[in-house]
Amino acid sequence: MFRNITPVVQNLLLINVVVFLVASFVLPVLNQWFALFNIQSEYFKPFQFLTYMFMHADFWHLFSNMFGLLIFGPLLEQFLGPKKLFTLWMVCGVGAGVLYTGYSVYQYKSLESKVLTFEANPDPEYFNKLVVQNRGYFSPEVFEFVDAFSRNPEDPIYIERAEKTLQAILRLNVNQPMVGASGALFGILIAFGMLFPNTQLFLLFPPMPIKAKYLVGAYAVYTIYSVMINNPTDNVAHFAHLSGLIIGAALVYNWKKDRNSFY
């Protein structure tokens, strides 16, 4: 595996590992500087559209992304050439960040509208609905408050606490950053599936062979499903994964139209 590693893949692996080690053990503040925040957050900086893809939440997050790059990247680099492989990685990564940011702004605006609706008409049932929809932000104790609020719907103390709770959700939502090279990796995956659709891959779990087009297709279906259900307890940025797939597919489709562009 390591004997066949190509230059761009090797450099990307090295950069990601070094940045992870520095951010984990030397300069932890890099996690706040370089992660991608919502554009409405006080922590947002334009360069984060680039830097977020070199940051990772933990070792396993880094390992899964780099393992995917190591498995699929070398053959793609040999076929496309170093320049196009690097372009694919960067465009999919940055593009996924941009599209995800637009998606997160939409989600924030939608949540903000619901909070304003509650503040205009403090209804315990509506508050409970918002809590259920955003339960990933709460500890289980919040449901005890929901019950108490339902029994005291006109109590100004409960209304004030409910409003503060929802405002806290808004702050958490807008200041929740995204990190990782998954958007770029999903661009690599779709490119591999489009260019080498019948290549046999051997899965570890379950241990069985599968053609690349079916594996990538399964990832795509799962990603679309995850975006649609929008599980509030799921902290994976599935929309960024989907964005990487779409951008990668568009790039490869455009390159395939002109076979002379491969080098």
UniProtKB/TrEMBL annotation:
Transmembrane parts of this sequence: 12-39, 59-76, 88-106, 184-205, 212-230, 236-255
Subcellular location: Membrane
Residue ranges of coiled coil: none
Major location category of this protein: membrane
SUPFAM superfamilies the UniProt entry points to: Rhomboid-like (SSF144091)
Gene Ontology biological process terms, A to Z: proteolysis
Pfam family, one: Rhomboid
Residue ranges annotated for the Peptidase S54 rhomboid domain, each copy included: 47-104, 171-253
Highest taxon listed in the record's lineage: Bacteria
UniProt cross-references to PANTHER family, sorted A to Z: PRESENILIN-ASSOCIATED RHOMBOID-LIKE PROTEIN, MITOCHONDRIAL, RHOMBOID PROTEASE
Protein name, as recorded: Rhomboid family intramembrane serine protease
Organism: Algoriphagus confluentis
Organism ancestry: Bacteria, Pseudomonadati, Bacteroidota, Cytophagia, Cytophagales
